[in-house]
């Protein structure tokens, strides 16, 4: 008997996160372990200029995955993008 019950929505969300992670790794040739270093909140909305940029909405919670050269950081939003 299974004592754990998972909602279908969490299973679907997990599959979507895996798909987004695979796309991220292929797009940016990122082979490091993905771990959350910090959580940040966007202060203002910023539309994406390029396909590789993540559009951000003011107040949105982001997981910081990696800090690269300069002021750039690699983040993930709540949808796993």
TrEMBL record:
Keywords: Phosphoprotein. GO terms for cellular component: plasma membrane. InterPro entries: FYB1/2-like, hSH3, SH3-like_dom_sf. GO terms for biological process: integrin-mediated signaling pathway; protein localization to plasma membrane; T cell receptor signaling pathway. It comes from the Eukaryota. Residues 24-81 form the Helically-extended SH3 domain. The keyword Phosphoprotein applies. The keyword Iron does not apply. PANTHER family: FYN-BINDING PROTEIN 2, SH2 CONTAINING ADAPTOR PRAM-1 RELATED. This is FYB2 protein. It comes from Chaetorhynchus papuensis (pygmy drongo). The lineage of its organism: Eukaryota, Metazoa, Chordata, Craniata, Vertebrata. The gene is Fyb2_1.
């Amino acid at each position: 008997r299974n004592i754990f019950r998972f909602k279908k929505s969490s299973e679907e969300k997990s599959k979507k996160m895996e798909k987004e992670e695979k796309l991220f790794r292929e797009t940016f040739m990122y082979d490091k372990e993905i771990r959350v270093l910090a959580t940040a909140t966007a202060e203002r909305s910023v539309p994406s200029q390029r396909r590789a940029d993540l559009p951000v909405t003011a107040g949105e919670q982001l997981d910081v995955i990696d800090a690269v050269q300069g002021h750039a950081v690699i983040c993930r939003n709540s949808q796993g993008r």
